[in-house]
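User: structure tokens for this one?
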Amino acid sequence: MANQKIIEKKSTIVEEIADKMKSSASYIFFEYRGLTVAETNELRRKLRETGSEFKIYKNTLALRALNSLNVAINELEGPKAIAFGHEDAVAPIKVLSDFAKDHKALELKIGVVDGEITDQAMLVKLASLPSREGLLTMFASGLMGIARDFAICLDLHAKNLEENN
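Assistant:
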């Protein structure tokens, strides 16, 4: 009877993990061994500020959840934590990457971003992207540059027409 209760508890945890993965824009597996409790709490706070969170689950349960979602990640060895990006897919990657710069114990391993399996090298590239606001600012300044150049061109053309008349 005890085994049945354990199996039910584990299947509930697997469903919880799968639900979190389905509802997240991204989820990233990372190593956390060596972080102190204070550092772990600081990381949780920083992730919460971006609408993200992290949980520590047993690898076997996380692999079962991945299998139920037909996600082929099999390289989970050793204790791993999972960061879930609920609102922004890149936000938890940036937070984890920035945190890893000061805390060598934290290491990004693999993740799923917008439904695509993302290896460690791609996670590093995503972490170096500017924020959404930064990208929008770059886009707006590019549009303003085009409008400015067009206005200058029209002004020069108008002056040229005035001189010829």
